[in-house]
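Progress report, Aim 2. The chain analyzed during this reporting quarter is listed below.
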Amino acid sequence: MQTLNVSERRACRALGQHRSTQRKVPRGRDDEEQLTTDLIELARRYGRYGYRKISALLKDAGWLVNDKRVERIWRREGLKVPARQPKRGRLWLADGSCVRLRPKHRDHVWSYDFVEDRTHDGRKFRMLNVVDEFTHECLAIRVARRLKAADVIDVLSDLFILRGVPGHVRSDNGPEFVAKSVQAWITAVGAKTAYIAPGSPWENGYVESFNARLRDEGLDGEIFYSLREAQIVIESWRRHFNTVRPHASLGYRPPAPEVLVPRQPAWPAAPPQPAPPARLAVAQRPTLN
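Predicted structure tokens for the chain:
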């Protein structure tokens, strides 16, 4: 092989390369392989999450990583969120306005709505979803073959005992919500009803958005062989939604993260140290009784 009698400076200038490329051998980070493995595992487990939510989950698992590095690995591995269904246009009032009660604090406005799905044998079941509009926390999901006005009162009474009476309860004009027994009971306990205008689901946007997340991330990826299985899996998803799932509107934090408080906290507090990268535990599906 014949070598050219050309200096390194002139050769790099002719090739358009920086001279440092001839001296320093690039190498990846030592934890690149492990980070890629954990990222792919999270992307497989949560197929509807983008790289920003995956980045938040990696940080919760102990990784010291920024979104740009996660995005680079995400694109390098060819990961992407499957295409969503086409968006539908909205119907607005004549003046283009949409006036509604806005939540100002925790337990100020709750909203609830029904969602339907089917078990593997084709039988229909319903879900009553209750959401705190301020914290975005899902307070309850009641799963049953049939849900009537008495079931609405039963779910709300349990929540009122646990969390107190909210200021307002928002819903559409379904027969289970506008029933006189429901209206009278809500008024008797000190709350107020806030019904949206007929044919205006965008006025109940918080619970409608939750319903979309429930169907997209939960119901569409599950086959329920029995009602009992649906109750267990959906309740497990609800707890994940509240305690683990990053919410973009909350700065990629869950609405109600679990906090473990030691019985005898150390004093003085030890200086914080970066947590070492930890392998993600493989999620196990809850067993049925």
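The radius of gyration is 26 Å. The beta strands are 109-118, 124-132, 138-144, 168-171, 192-195. These observations will guide the mutagenesis work planned for the next reporting period.
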